[in-house]
Amino acid sequence: MADRKKLVLVGNGMAGVRAIEHLIKLAPDAYSITIFGAEPYPNYNRIMLSSVLAGGTDMKDIIINDWDWYADNHIQLHAGHTVTKIDTKRKKVYSQQGVEADYDVLVMATGSNPFMLPLPGANKEGVIGFRDIRDTEIMQETSQKYKKAAVIGGGLLGLEAARGLLNLGMDVHVVHINGILMNRELDEPAARMLQRELEAQGMKFLLSKQSASITGRRRVKALQFADGSEVEADLIVMAVGIRPNVELAKASGIEVGRGIIVDDFMRTNIPDVYAVGECAEHRGIAYGLVAPLYEQGAVLAKLLAGVESEGYQGSVTSTKLKVSGVDVFSAGQFNEGPGTRALRIQDDVAGTYKKIVIKNGKLVGAVLFGDTTDGAELFSIMKKGESIEGKEKELLLGFSPAGGGTSSAADRLAAMPDDEIVCGCNGVSKGAIADAVQNKGCNTMASLKGCTKASASCGGCKPQVEGLLKLYAGDAAGVPVKEGICGCTEHSRDEIVAAIKEMRLMTVKEVMNVLGWKNEGGCTKCRPSLNYYLGMLWPGEYEDQKESRFTNERYHANIQKDGTYSVVPRVYGGVTTPSDLIKIATVAEKYEVPMVKFTGGQRLDLLGVKKEDLPKIWEELDMPSGHAYGKTLRTVKTCVGNTFCRFGTQDSIAMGIRMEKAYERMTAPAKVKLAVSGCPRNCAEATIKDLGIVAIDGAWELHVGGNGGIHVRATELLCTVKTEDEVMEWSSAYLQYYRENATWNERTAQWIERVGLDHVKKALEKREDRLALVERLEKTLSYTTDPWKEIIENKELRKNFEQLSAPQPAQG
């Protein structure tokens, strides 16, 4: 690592991180990489924000590279850090939060900012742009209290914002200074067709309106226009364009125009400083579409990896989008001008429109509405610059421009060049789709989308992706291949566990090699599962592979979205002492912990802890880890039982403490939560836990398979026993049987639903079988140690916590 060059990327967006992805593939050991991102999130697909706003997609679904991707590729990510200064002479960058980083190579990928109209009143509450996750959250929050919204801007972003606000139940007016919608992408006939379609969906339009001022006291009340009219609004969203974010570059002596000026290899005027993405200006153009930005990133990656390339020659752009469920496509010079001829066909009944623009015998522009199937072919002809003289009508009607006969969609897809971009949102080429289908077994749309991300964003390319899937997979298209634990293998969980047992496989790498993993290094889904299965089968022989664990488990703390950590010490059964409370309070004050919170599991959570403070806090607390971060026993919740409560029938506190001390370091396929209630009134909520114990007169009920999370599931009664020792015997046997038979990441609720309670009862009905399971669990637990204490006492392990900032958290 010492001889690697230091690369710093300023900007954690789509263009910059795509360049890093390419670079890692081309030269995995050449650079030590540090990324600064102003938002407290991993790299996500900004194009999909409108889908999140509309409620069709969850935030987690638009993450391109999750937190573990950075850790797996040894990338130091400073999320939530805004770079405020670059010293190009000393080759240093400085963040607003006080972090410094040296660089040999600096890549500027600062993106763009939403253009906010400088209207009187624009600073009022309720006036926002639409550019990032926070804007999306504000719109969602606003819709809960207010009902009237105005969106300034009739382009794609404005229409998508309006669609989302409609879905949130708001009354929406779209205000546009032009007389037609999407005037940069559509001609008038197509724009009018789009307007009619969106009006039918409930959108209202105020076209040819110039915004003049925003009224209201503290919060916006109305938007006034230059003609004296106004529209009431509790929320105003400005979606009128973007501006390259060049302020940092300009202040650092880097040459800027509209954007950061770069040459064909993305070099700025400062040595070793490069720029890509929406912030870059190449040959006088700053691009705002994804495909050109990805092309720039690929060129830069090749340059930094020492791979020859022709450089970036600029992009002929096309726009293929799904606007509020309507497919539109445009490319090139789609409005007629001097020396051009246009052919068009319009079907108002079917809701389709097609127009091609020709100049000097060549196709120079096209607009499609409703049916965009021919978009890729038209764009390919346009880029090639080939003559279409004599074949214009055939092309307009969907006929092949060469060869004279009709051409099916399959023929057109087959003739498409391999480097043709099919999915513009995610930069996926025809060749990448072919490779996924032919070499990686992706023969369904779901698997193809998961492998390549093709059609995973706006969905406008879905017909072409489906066509290519059928072209390459033939009769196998849509037939699911054997389902493996992830895309790296076709082997199921049971096959993998059986092979590990039979062949006594002892390492993650050995399992992958012997079982023929498609992806040599595995992925963030299979590596942790293999690590668990090996540890479960060979507890005394297998050495835990820390790099195969999720980031939270590597650092033994839950990592928060701002890059800080939380510390949850073990509080057995929810019972603490004054001395422990004093220790927690003292430590919290000493290390300026921003928040101390009672958890739902009757513990105290110290939130906002810096990574470098973790070992010191653990040492001064002198308490065991509460394992609040891993796939382990989390907590055993208790009520006061018959110790204090007049309704209590058994000592639930003592039972809960006994169970928590017995299982406190138990790993499992997923997190495990327990509870003990002292009577059927169930104050400890035992009947929505993975394992819940409920006291009744003279006995204990064992309930299993509950969940209080997103999908609430009540427990099922496993058995009723008379003594505390029997509770422990049955509980240990049940937990070990779950450990040995559940799929990785499968909670007990899903496991019980899958295998059935009767199956579990039968497996545990013989005492000798239960005792064998208990013995295996106790053997496993005998090898465990408290991770906090281990790190405190081991200088080498402690070194991992000395860096200024942490790898970021795994989601989910």
Structure description:
Its cofactor is FAD; [4Fe-4S] cluster; siroheme; [2Fe-2S] cluster. It comes from Paenibacillus glycanilyticus. Belongs to the nitrite and sulfite reductase 4Fe-4S domain family. It contains 28 helices and 38 strands. The protein starts with a strand and ends in a 13-residue tail after the last helix. The chain has a 5-stranded parallel sheet, covered by helices on one side. Strands 11-18-12-13-14 form a 5-stranded parallel sheet, with helices on one face. By secondary structure, the chain is α/β, with parallel strands linked by helices. The longest helix has 18 residues.
Main attributes?
alpha/beta, 5-stranded parallel β-sheet
The biggest beta sheet reads: 5 strands, parallel
Structural class: alpha/beta
- Alpha carbon gyration radius: 30 Å
- Strand neighbour order, sheet with most strands: 5-2-1-9-21
Q: Based on the structure, what is the oligomeric state of the protein chains?
A: single chain
Rounded average pLDDT: 89
The number of distinct β-strands equals: 38
Shape: globular
The separation of the N and C termini measures 31 Å
Determine the fraction of residues in helical runs and give it as a percent range: 25-40%
Number of helix segments?
28
In what range is the share of β-strand residues?
A: 15-25%
Give start-end ranges of low-pLDDT stretches.
399-406, 804-812
Layout of helices and strands:
Blueprint (H helix, E strand, L loop, with lengths): L4 E6 L3 H13 L4 E7 L5 E2 L4 H6 L8 E3 L1 H6 L3 E4 L3 E5 L4 E4 L4 E3 L2 E4 L3 E3 L12 E3 L3 H11 L4 E5 L3 H12 L3 E6 L11 H13 L3 E4 L3 E5 L6 E4 L4 E3 L2 E4 L3 E3 L2 H5 L8 E3 L10 E3 L4 E3 L7 H16 L12 E6 L2 E7 L7 E8 L4 E8 L2 E8 L5 H10 L7 H5 L12 H7 L5 E3 L4 E2 H11 L4 H8 L9 H12 L19 H11 L4 H7 L11 H12 L13 H4 L3 E2 L5 E3 L10 H13 L4 E4 L5 E6 L4 H8 L11 E6 L2 H4 L7 H12 L8 E6 L13 E6 L2 E6 L11 E6 L2 H18 L6 H8 L1 H8 L2 H16 L4 H7 L1 H5 L13
Parallel strand pairs: 1-2, 1-9, 2-5, 9-21, 11-18, 12-13, 12-18, 13-14, 20-22, 34-35, 35-36
Antiparallel strand pairs: 3-4, 6-7, 7-8, 10-19, 15-16, 16-17, 23-24, 24-27, 25-26, 26-27, 28-29, 30-31, 31-33, 32-33, 36-37, 37-38
Helix pairs in contact: 1-8, 11-14, 12-14, 15-17, 20-27, 23-26
